[in-house]
Amino acid sequence: MVKKTEIIKINDITWADVDNRNRIIATKEGKLYASKISGDGSVDYINLQAVHDLNSQTPKRILTPLEMKSWD
After folding, report:
1. Composition of the chain by helix, strand, coil, percent to 5
2. pLDDT greater than 80 at residue 72
3. Is residue 36 classed as helix, strand or coil in its secondary structure?
4. Inter-residue contact 28 to 15 (CB < 8 Å)
């Protein structure tokens, strides 16, 4: 458990933040993970659970509509 006043490095995590449900959310290897924050402000990073696998999603190229290419 880590207290909210401590800063630690989470191995292999690409990005992490706190969401509006007061969960730690993080991305790792193309997957979204979440973990609850305890009442005392601590987080058990070992208990991150996969919420969604984003690996199948790929960006697609789209053309900019003509009306969006001008400030007029």
Report:
1. 10, 35, 60
2. no
3. strand
4. no
Instruction: Report the predicted TM-score, pTM, of the whole model to 2 decimal places.
Output: 0.60
Dihedral angle sign, alpha carbons of residues 54, 57, 62, 67: negative
Written as six digits, the tokens of 33 are 């993970």
Neighbours of 25 (CB within 10 A): 16
Stretch 47-51: mean pLDDT: 85
Mean pLDDT of 1-25: 74
Q: Which amino acid is at 11?
A: N
- CA–CA distance, 3 with 66 (Å, rounded to integer): 52
Quick one: tokens of 8? 């630690």
Other Cβ atoms within 10 Å of 26 Cβ, number: 20
